[in-house]
Specification:
Length: 210
Amino acid sequence: MEFDFTTLPERDRYRLLSSFVAPRPIALVTTLCAEGIANAAPMSFFNVFSQEPPIVILGIQCRPDGSIKDTVTNITRRQSFCVNMVDMALAEAMITCGISYAPDVDEIATAGLTMTSASQIDGGWIAESPCAMECVVEETIRYARREIILGRVLQMHVRDNCLDDAGRYVRPENYQPIARLHADNYITSDRQFELKVPDTPPVGVTQKAN
């Protein structure tokens, strides 16, 4: 099958991209509105793109009626946000936060979660999250119906049992984030395996010098 994205309708482009570029990690993004009410929204158009500078990226689309989502409004006003990673314990609460509430509704409290004050930005992070990242806006790329927001990570909060005693490597038995596949389908990283680069190249292949 072939698909010409220069002529393909938006809905079909979304269906194909989100089905094949998967699984995608989920950012449960927390922000504050102008009145200081906490907002939380799940984003699956999300990933980490750089360690120097430490950059994560969000892709946030407008609502079907073309209006801007509260998360974008809050990020634009305060120039900061927090990314809370989602595991199975947070899955149902994450879905609850994805409901379209009025701007004055505290999604975090509605979902039965706990807001913890941030260290370096306005707002806070979700205490139940295994890993949360406080971010400031580095750059915003605006399209007609979507904003691409690059956030610089200033602070990371990690649940103690997620890392080994040296604080270097994730304990896969304790940190199993969930990710979005397509439509209403998700996956959890509870089946992990290692693939290592061989010490020597295949026969007949010259290895580049480091």
